[in-house]
Amino acid sequence: MRKSLLDMEEIDRYLFNQLSVQERALFEARIILESELRANMHFQRQTHALIRWFSRLQKKERLQSLHKRLMKDKKFEQQISTIFI
Amino acid sequence: MDTNTGLSMEQLYRDAFPVVARTIARMGGDLESAKDIFHDALIIYLEKSHVVQLNSSPVSYLNGISRILWIKKFKDQLLYTFLDGSEEGIATTADSYASEQETAKPIFEYIKHAGRKCLELLQAFYYDRRSMQEIAEQFQFGSRRSATVQKYKCLEKVRDQLKTSSRYEKVTA
Asked: Best interface-test mutation with A: which of B7, B127, B135 has the largest number of A CBs within 10 A?
């Protein structure tokens, strides 16, 4: 794996608390010394959040269509609407 | 959509939504808000069930979260900010969900830029928490290692897009 990908792997392991105490100390020293690595870590964390956000949005859309589909089922629709009378 | 429990999402929806709807109705909510609360609760449930063994039944767990989300929504509307510790653990996920939804919308394009296969691979690992072994099999990689390399290449694509855009924003700001 090329260096930039190895760094990504290490950033992931740092962010997910998978480094040993020694590896962690070394990595934190590198973060202080290497501004590029520091920036990459910042954006990698944002990327994780973006993936999470996107996945949740997708799930919500699927749930909306499931809801629509189930509400077309007369029996289910009646069961639900009587609750809100 | 899978529920991680062998139960189909449709079956879980049919079982749990009437229970949740009754809870929300009793607390004064309408159908639309019951549905929204239920969907948030389902997402929380699906995420939690990836990482921890949930002790209660899916229906009572969903009903419990929905109740908490409703109370929280009500408190927020009253600008009442106190949350006791027991609510905080669950409520946080919903909070971050709402704020991410607002802030991340303009950067929707960056994640799409990676391409569909990359996106699915990233979601399988970072959201669905599947192991690299499972991912290698699902996406038909020759080995776990080559799946890992591809995962980082995909992650790099999205990350570098974000990075470039932030530089651009700095220049134009």
From this structure: B127
